[in-house]
Amino acid sequence: MDISSLPVQLSRFTPLVWVMLIGNFFVRASYYMVWPFLAVMLYESYGLSATEVGLLLTGSATLAVFLGFYTGNLADRFGRTRMLYVAVLVGVVSFAMLALANALWLFAVAVFLACMPRTLWEAPSKALLTEELANPKDRELALHLLYFLVNVGAALGPLYGLWAGLNGEQFSFIYTAVSYLGLLVALLYFRPRRDGATPATQSAPKFSQWLKILNKDRTFLVVLVATTLVYFVYAQCDTSLVQYLTRADVPELAWLISAVIITNSTVIIVCQFPLLHLMRNWSIEHRLYLGGAILAVSQVMMALNDVHNTWGWIVAMIVLSLSEAIMFSNINVYIDRLAPDNLKASYFGAAGLCSLGYAFAPILGGLVLDLSTGVILFVLTTLTSFVALVFYKIAQLQLKGAPRAVSEV
C-alpha cells in the first residue's frame, strides 16, 4: 500500500463504504464497552458465582460465533444490507434491555443479544464494502482501514463502558441504543439500490449447499485452521498471561497489565499503515509469513523472560503487536481474495469461526498453567505459531497447484 496514493484512493470511497467503516468501529466499540465489565455487573448486581458468570459469557460468545457462520450465508442469499438492518435493530433492543432489565433472566438475555450486533454486522459489512469498490487496491485499503478503526473502537469502548456501566447508572446503556438508531438512519439513507437483487445474491446457495462447497474448498479450510491457531496464540496474551503474572505475585501487577494493554493498542494504531507501506510490494502470503515469524519471536521472548522483569514483558508485547498489525488486516484481504463474489459474506462468516481460537484459549491456557508452568505455555504457543505458518504455506502451495474446487461450483 503506497501512502502517497491514499488521498486519491480515499476519494473513490462511496458514502456507503464510509458507513460500513464507521459502523464497524461503532459496533466493535459498543461490544467492548459491555464485555469487559459484564462479569463485574453480574457479580455485584445479581450475585452470580465465577463459574456461572463464565458459563453465561462463554456460552453467549460461542453461540454468537456459530450464528455468524449461518447468517453470513443468509446475507449472501437475501441481501447483505438487510442483515445489517437486523444487526442494528438487535443492537437497539439489546442495549435498551441492558439499561432497563431488573431481573436476572432478562439481563442474561440482554447479555446474549449484546454479542449479536458484532456477529451479524461483520461478515455482510465486509462483503458489502468489497462489493462497493471495484479496484482491488481500494478494497485492500478499505479492509486495512477497517481493522484500524476496529482497534480504535476496541481501545475506546472500555473507556466509555467504565463510565456508562460502572461509574454511572445502568440506565446509561440507553445512550448506546439511541446511537444504534442513528446508525440505522445512516444505513437507510446510504443503502445500495441493488440490495437483494444482484446476480450474486440470486446465485448464492442454500446453507446445506454452502456447507458442501466449503467442504470442497480445502485451501480455505487450511487457511481457517491456520488463522484459528494464530488467534489462539494471540489470545494467550490477553488471558493466560494475566493469570501467569497473577500467580507469580508480580509487584505492581495492575500497572503492568494496564501498560501491556495500552502498549498493544498504541503499537497497532501507530505502526499499522507504516508497516503496510513498507510491504506494499509484498504478496499477501509473504506478509503473513513475516507476521507469523514475528509472532513466534514474541512467544520465545515471553518464554525466556523472567516473570518479574516488567520491561521484558512490555518489549515482548511490542514485538507481538507488530505481528498483529501485519497479520490481522492482511487475513481479511486474503479471505476476500479467496471468496467468490456470490459468497463474500458466507466466507467472511465462516472466517468468524476462527474466533473459537479466542474462545478456547482461556480454558486450554489455564489447563497448561495448572499442570505445568508459564514457560511451558509459551513454548507451546511458539510451536503453535510455527504450525500455523506451515498451514499458510500449505494453502499457498494448493493455490499454485490444482484449481480450487469452489471455482467449479
From TrEMBL:
Subcellular location: Cell membrane
UniProt KW keywords: Cell membrane, Membrane, Transmembrane, Transmembrane helix, Transport
Membrane topology: Multi-pass membrane protein
Superkingdom field: Bacteria
UniProt key word RNA-binding: no
Domain Major facilitator superfamily (MFS) profile: from-to ranges: 16-400
Record protein name field: MFS transporter
Recorded GO MF terms: transmembrane transporter activity
A Pfam family: MFS_1
Biological source species: Pseudoalteromonas rubra
TM spans (from-to): 16-41, 53-71, 83-116, 145-166, 172-190, 219-235, 255-276, 288-305, 311-335, 347-369, 375-395
GO annotations of cellular component type: plasma membrane
Primary localization class, coarse: membrane
Keyword Cell membrane carried by entry: yes
